[in-house]
Amino acid sequence: AQSVTQLDSHVSVSEGTPVLLRCNYSSSYSPSLFWYVQHPNKGLQLLLKYTSAATLVKGINGFEAEFKKSETSFHLTKPSAHMSDAAEYFCVVREYNFNKFYFGSGTKLNVKP
Amino acid sequence: DAGVIQSPRHEVTEMGQEVTLRCKPISGHDYLFWYRQTMMRGLELLIYFNNNVPIDDSGMPEDRFSAKMPNASFSTLKIQPSEPRDSAVYFCASSLRSGMNTEAFFGQGTRLTVV
Predict the structure, then answer these.
(1) Which residues of B touch A43 (CB under 8 A)?
(2) Is A113 helix (H, G, I), strand (E, B) or coil?
(3) Do residues B78 and B18 make contact, with C-beta atoms less than 8 angstroms apart?
(4) Are B43 and A103 in contact (CB under 8 A)?
(5) Going by C-beta distance under 8 Å and a sequence separation of 6 or more, which residues neighbour residue A26?
(6) How far apart are alpha carbons B61 and B38 in whole angstroms?
């Protein structure tokens, strides 16, 4: 069975400090993994995706995520937070040949000046 | 492509009225998803279609909700009769089948308020 766990519902960082948003998944088959961002009152935008080509994935706005199969994790990082990064972030899994997208419960990132 | 297009962006209606939400997926995508987002329940999958055929509607809350996809370029989500607890943001998304480069593309959502 597929599931996604985002370990923190809220994360607060200061501007200029690193960001770490944690995600663990369970999947019976080779998954595709995604991170989406949702700014207040906006739709969901793709940040990055893992589709088995490379374990370290670079996305937009300086975000990265590393796929670790042994840990079943896909944590999202950014070296230096910017005020504009304040938003809600969703980790998503989709298994090959299974077409539903499974969403985590979301992590709200607050960036303090 | 203009992306996934939803209409209306905002809808305010009275309890008991029928509400129809519309979605135009990205051309060539063969999967279409309807989601509902609320503060209390987060993002919920209501139903999804493959090649215009409903595949899984287990997330549809009750018989008041219905969804159709009469052709590859149009889908509707209808609520009849509407209730205040249906107030939420409804998102439509489309994608190619699972495999490489198969993320979901989301519309901007319809914010529904039932008073």
Answers:
(1) 91, 106-109
(2) coil
(3) yes
(4) yes
(5) A1, A2, A3, A72
(6) 13
Please report the beta strands in A15-55, taking only residues with DSSP state E, as ranges in sequence order. Answer: 19-21, 23-26, 31-38, 44-50
Pairwise CA distance, residues A98 & B27, whole Å: 21
Q: Tell me: the pLDDT tens digits for A14-69?
A: 999 999 999 999 877 778 899 999 999 889 999 999 877 788 999 999 999 999 98
- Judged by a CB distance cut-off of 8 A, whether residue B42 touches chain A is yes
Residues from chain A contacting residue B42 (CB–CB below 8 Å) = 103, 105-106
C-alpha–C-alpha distance, residues A86 and A3, integer Å: 25
Length of chain B: 115
| Residues 6 or more apart in contact with residue B39 via CB below 8 angstroms | none
If DSSP codes are grouped into helix, strand and coil, which group holds residue A62? helix
DSSP code string of chain B: ----EEE-SEEEE-TT--EEEEEEPPTT--EEEEEEEETTTEEEEEEEEETTEEEE-TT--STTEEEEEEETTEEEEEESS--GGG-EEEEEEEE--SSTT---EE---EEEEE-
